[in-house]
User: Fold this.
Amino acid sequence: MNSTETGDYYDAMFRKGGFEGVFDLPYWHSTYYPLLRSVLRELKRAGARQVLEVGCGTGAFAHLLTRRSDIAYRGFDFSPVAVEKARARLGRSDLFAVGDALAPASYAAPHDSIVCTEVLEHIERDREVIAQWKPGTFCVCSVPDYESESHVRVFRAEAEVRERYGGLIAIERVQRIRKPFLSDISWRSRLRALRWNRHRPRRLLQILNLAYLGELGTWLVFSGRRRP
Assistant:
């Protein structure tokens, strides 16, 4: 976690729903949907059977996974507010727990795979978190290439990801996923944005995800097995 931030900061962020309420949207309307789909594809490719999500947030990925696969799921987050929202989203209190990513006890649930998306960039001791993961565990993680007030680091290239995490994870693949411009990517939201910006050509390209990648930002999704 960023040393300038506290648990109260993230509780307040989750309570508000994030920027433009993105954390409370249905997963298929969320700007994170392309990212979450890519993570699920990686889990299926690896034949994952039991997933533990480190930093489950408000449960968007859990919702996607439980609706579109038979993979068993457990998740934890250090924000009680996020965990309560995740439980409410799925109507399942048993799938989510409050936990510290640096505490071995947080990894007690049976799992053969770990998902950790949009978490590591917020944590100063990120490599110590990965060190908690069992050797041989299949890992799917993501980090951003764009700045944010709560990010302690960003990654501009695949080589930077491999340099920081390759000693801990035998990285098999790194994929760059384009981040949508809108927080709400539903067709209703897109059509409204297109109508409001019809005289702004550059903004129209951004809304349609046709702008230069550097304008929109991307996620670097990397996967592989935890090294011994």
Q: What stands out?
A: Residues 1-5 have pLDDT under 50 and may be disordered. The two ends are 26 Å apart (CA to CA).
